[in-house]
Amino acid sequence: MSLTASVSERADAVRAAAPLVHCITNYVTVESCANAVLAAGASPIMSDEPDDVDDITSICGALVLNIGTLNKQTIAGMKVAGAKAAELGHPIVLDPVGAGASKLRTATACELLDTLPVALVRGNMSEIKALAGNAAATQGVDVNPSDAVCDEDDIAEAAVFARDFAAKAGCVVAITGPIDIVADATRAFAVRNGSPLQGRITGSGCMLSALCGAYAACAGDAMLEAALAAVVHMGAAGQEAEARMGDADGTGSYHTYLMDAISRATGASLAEAAAVAEVA
Amino acid sequence: MSLTASVSERADAVRAAAPLVHCITNYVTVESCANAVLAAGASPIMSDEPDDVDDITSICGALVLNIGTLNKQTIAGMKVAGAKAAELGHPIVLDPVGAGASKLRTATACELLDTLPVALVRGNMSEIKALAGNAAATQGVDVNPSDAVCDEDDIAEAAVFARDFAAKAGCVVAITGPIDIVADATRAFAVRNGSPLQGRITGSGCMLSALCGAYAACAGDAMLEAALAAVVHMGAAGQEAEARMGDADGTGSYHTYLMDAISRATGASLAEAAAVAEVA
Amino acid sequence: MSLTASVSERADAVRAAAPLVHCITNYVTVESCANAVLAAGASPIMSDEPDDVDDITSICGALVLNIGTLNKQTIAGMKVAGAKAAELGHPIVLDPVGAGASKLRTATACELLDTLPVALVRGNMSEIKALAGNAAATQGVDVNPSDAVCDEDDIAEAAVFARDFAAKAGCVVAITGPIDIVADATRAFAVRNGSPLQGRITGSGCMLSALCGAYAACAGDAMLEAALAAVVHMGAAGQEAEARMGDADGTGSYHTYLMDAISRATGASLAEAAAVAEVA
């Protein structure tokens, strides 16, 4: 199957299956994450209480762990939910928000990655480097500009790093930025969808990780293709939203247009918009 | 007084009184809930710390308890706030988000309902069935399609169930879905306002429960009429928002239009839009 | 430098420096706060876990403490973060949401103000009066109408109060309302920017406090000028958003337009919009 046909098929599968997605995510962008999951045709449920997550994750099809505003209770909830998802064979998506920016974030993300059968990690390059044990210099929750994959020269090196990380971590990785890199241990893809305006609102990364949960729930064995489709979904929506910006519009309208575009995307529209290429 | 005159009077009463509404609600949709309360002309205050809620609920006119992201601390806060509201005679609105989806949610909602003088319960049919002790199969935070009240054939049975639940629980119940059922122990009403787009964003139910708090604060002895007016307010806004959707719009714009419509509604506009009928 | 030139310079400095701002803020308006900081050209990071805040605040340029949904854990986080910011000489902005409405809120705000070298307090008049030990009657999180600075007659008295408060607290104070008063121990300014619609959405005050954090991070010794510029930024955006309201628009659209306007403001546009006068 062609890459674009695969993207199309994955997006339609999410709308057809409407999976429940259990999200333990930060309180900053949680409403946008829930709306993004709904916009893609899936259904979110948020629960972080350790005594609640076992039941909740059991009725879901995937689990998203996002450490954006981690605290001791939610970390405990993540571990309980992760163990249950592992037991049930539900795919787990990890968003290591701010890994590299604090010891607790780096250690928590690494522990979750080491102890749970994570299926997909989605982060910016600084965060993924921090997980890989590299000397990372994450700038808060933003990528360090020196880490970002911005042009052709960066892609080959990033692809090697991504495949290597995926091999060691035993999962798929989606490293998003100006150019996104999605890889498993053997294959890497560059995605040239997206808009610089996505970085001017909070939650673009978190929403994508939540979308990854929806796609992962329907992925079966095709986790790489599912991650790729989710990245295209978000990036294409980012572009469509940018194209709609009017003279008086700013970041508030952009946020609205982005959600509109996520909700309007179809398999066919994403296949048309997808700018994906394999990296040797 | 006619039903529509009652809706009109209730909506105007909220704008005239501008009551303070204490909300202990989930962190997913909390900003939308606060904005919905403001949009209806009331004023929200959120507080869940057990050491804070006593003072806060004392200065308010109603208390809304929403268990959407319950945790041990907020449950403790709900109990303290509920006891104080009970002592002061403030109406309590309960939204049992996800009851039936986990043991903790079902048990917590039942405990709050059993131990507090709840004035109004607002949920979807799966959640209310879970509270009633029926074998419920809540799908996460969504209604199980087999439970939803969708057409004329479902209404009579739902009305019987609702009146029975209201009698046993000693409160008013608003069961929302494609067709909403609002009942006390002796009377039940079907509301045919609303839009299917409300289910495509997060928080429609939570916002309605918060609105119920604003209406309950001004209800006096007319809790059934107040609940009915709140349900009409939300449903009419949902329809108005749908009517405004343009070619490029999606769920982001719908959310904005919905809040716009909540904020623009008046007693007169709601009386005109109300599609309410008593169910024998 | 003229007042308007100073506003312009401060706004441009934030966009040029793009400081990281550590926010420990309530979960109601946190996404809007993060988006407001981004809209002003800075970068927010939210973290309240006591074991995380030390590292996070170290990499930031300012710390914002907002007690809107305080609980024991976030209070502990505020103290740890505040001590670290103090050690590093980072400016601290305090938003005493609801001070006067509960004993815990008043006591927490006073303790933070007394024990930390707070650079700037931003609140409504009822909240600031509560901090000053006056008999305050905060209405939930809203100003008591009898406290609000609404016309010329109120300004002189408010300016005296503000300068006195600033002198005693050893910081700059921004008291916002229909007319805003910004003062240090020796000078006070009245700002006549803003729109009544800001009070019809949640988070106008919180967003301003978050903006104050961005401006404070670039303030150097000019904290009064920085606070003034932040207040003008929010107020001018509030006016621009109001001017854009169409026939079908309500508070949902207003929120979007407000964020749009915050993000589109430049030093030049703010200098042109600024309605600032010193109060003798």
UniProtKB/TrEMBL annotation, chains A, B, C:
Residues reported in the UniProt entry to bind ATP: R122, T176
Pathway connected to this protein: Cofactor biosynthesis; thiamine diphosphate biosynthesis; 4-methyl-5-(2-phosphoethyl)-thiazole from 5-(2-hydroxyethyl)-4-methylthiazole: step 1/1
SUPFAM superfamilies in the record: Ribokinase-like (SSF53613)
Positions that bind substrate: M46, G203
UniProt keyword Magnesium, yes or no: yes
EC code: 2.7.1.50
InterPro entries in the cross-refs: Hyethyz_kinase, Ribokinase-like
Pfam families: HK
Superkingdom as given in the UniProt entry: Bacteria
Cofactor(s) needed for function: Mg(2+)
EC main group: transferase
GO annotation terms (biological process): thiamine biosynthetic process; thiamine diphosphate biosynthetic process
Family: Belongs to the Thz kinase family.
Function in brief: Catalyzes the phosphorylation of the hydroxyl group of 4-methyl-5-beta-hydroxyethylthiazole (THZ).
Protein name, as recorded: Hydroxyethylthiazole kinase
Organism per entry: Slackia faecicanis
Gene (name only): thiM
